[in-house]
Queue: 3 jobs
Job 1
Amino acid sequence: MSHLVITDNNELEEIKDTPKAHPALRVAATILSYIFHPVFIPVYVIAFLLYIEPFLFVGESARDKVLTLGRAFINYTFFPLVSILLLKGLNLIKSIKLQDRKDRIIPFIICNIWYFWIWYVWRGLPDAPRFLIVFAFSVFIASSIGLLANTYLKISMHGIALGTATTYLCLLAINPISSNITIYLAFALLITGLLGSARLLLKAHEPVEYYAGLGAGTLAVWIANLIV
């Protein structure tokens, strides 16, 4: 279905009517978007490494694991959230949802600072596992690619986060010293698909913007694994 409207230039334009999603679906999509928000994804991955697939942290004490997870939470979740709230309080962004492409520029830069910092700290620790450093570097590179891509399109931050996490799990899956994580990789792929559908259903992104985010995350992991 479509209808004609008169634009500001007194020209006729055909507008296609898109069917509205059921309210329950929109609620589910919103909840899914918050649960797998980009500020939480890195912490989920590191918690997975620490407690579910701990081959990277053999011999690590419970206290050290908590400290590692705490550092991840502070740099990947707490500081970015506080920074965005401060930007909103100073009226430097229109909304904390960062719906406008221009609103994403400063948050991208600020998050890059925190992501660079935790990677720099971890890479300096003598006992830090290489795969942990690879992941931290991947997050920093993915965010940097997102900042550059944001110049041309409103690249999906959810896509960047899940592209990074899922590709990283693929990297772990082919590591000979890791256990069988096929089921977790399948779950990550499922979430990636569901979240993409959720973002499109909420009209937060066009398909190309979500796919670009996935591509940025995939490329970041490949570069990080190559360099580190």
Note: The mean pLDDT is 86.
Job 2
Amino acid sequence: MTYNSDQLLHTYQQWLQALDLARQPQTLYAPVQYVLSLGGKRLRPVLMLMAYNLFRDDIERAKYQALGIELYHNFTLLHDDLMDRADMRRGSPTVHKRWDDNTAILSGDAMTILAYQQMEQCDARHLPHVMRIFSQTALEICEGQQYDMDFERRMDVKEAEYMEMIRLKTSVLLAGSLKIGAVLADAPDEDADLLYDFGICIGLAFQLKDDLLDVYGDPKMFGKKNGGDILCNKKTFLLIKALELANDMQRNELCRWIEMKEYIPQEKIDAVTTLYNIIGVNKLAERLIDDYTAKATALLDRVSVAEDKKQALRKLMDGLKRREV
């Protein structure tokens, strides 16, 4: 049986609700339960189950790894929010705001360990390969986060550096999810590698779409106000390309807003967005999203399973490209 993304999401949500976190002290585990209750796309476990389902129907065999990958993803969000001093996540207070910094650090650490405990629950034949992929992915995410923090202090970040940062910070977890699913299903090595590369491409497109939505998304759909990246001078694809392609007058204006300490937030958002529109970086981002989506499609074409089995992944990929949230 080939499952669609909604079916897999429903099954995964049932597994997540049944996850036993009734350990003590509850002051450690309550924030973990809170983070997991905030929802989200559950994209990574769904991708893992989709990859598994390309080759096998008994998706229950990938249950623990799907739970582990989502636990790890939410740990990264918890610590990202702390490092960014973010007040809200998915419309609710972040852990360090609802509790405190120390709780966020320790509960995040516990989530990492819980993720590894879930991930290791597979047969001995698959265990070394699965854990090797997962550990390498976890380390690369840390590398990507460090690059992101380093970029905050630089005005000369290049497009290639940014793409490498989002490959590490965002794409490798999608790619690793897909590859682990394939490995658990005994997929041929070539197919597992193709799915990994497919995940890298959709991850890059996914983050570029996030950059666009932060500036151009409908706030009612996106769930937050536009321009958060602009207000904190975040080195997104849009800002990096704007600084690279701007003429002297445009660059001076961008730098003036970046360096300004006191301003009316909406005025800054409007001014920088206008510069983005004039320079055309939004169109460049859209073209790059199309390019990575085309590359992902070509990689999926080469996976050696029947075409009808790939339709769920194709539909999901199209949805990610067209999403407004």
Note: Strands lie at 88-89, 92-93.
Job 3
Amino acid sequence: MINVQGLTKKYGKHIANDNITLQLKAGELGVLLGPNGAGKSTLIKSICGLLRFTGHITVDGHENRSLEAKRVLGYAPEVATPYPMLTVAEHMEFIARAYRIGAGWETRADELLRRFELDDKRNKLGKELSKGMKQKVSICCALLPDPKVIILDEPLSGLDPHGIRQLQRAIEDMRSAGKSILVSTHMIDTVEAAWDVTFIMKKGQMLRECRRAEQAESLEDIYFSLFDEGELAGDE
């Protein structure tokens, strides 16, 4: 569902992503790990078609910048930035119109707002929302079109324990439905029970790819075995 081949992204002389290759199949939960500055968000933004790069990326078999790819991709960025003068309900309507979701989208929107405890916040403006509420709105907007591929960049940031639990359950439901989910997170314990493949990055390079079926160690043990304390100092 996500196929990245030879991705290189430079900012001037700085190489943020250096010849990255990865593959995420249908029904897989992929986890993207690495210290702060490893290049995870750059990789995610490149997959989503938000950055120029060299290499080749496809989403569900479509070139990642194409309309076909964008129609099947849901993305919640690391920093949620809702429109300040749109209400929560208007954000959902905006997404429904942008993706040309057919009749019945209101029912799905209501289900998502209830799931993430935003039902009583539907008339709040974006500028009135807390950090956690903004994150929840961003996730709801990403999931509203019922995408085949979902990319979540640090989605747990700002969420309360109940919000984390609801997102975990939503991810489990989507995985069971055959969707591909790529999650970048520093909260390893929140994905420990369900991951299928983990991509560990360091200084813009793919340090290691781990498939759960081939690993006897826990994800946390694998990760910390690859870095010393100095490399992880200041990690987000």
Note: The first strand starts at residue 2 and ends at 11.
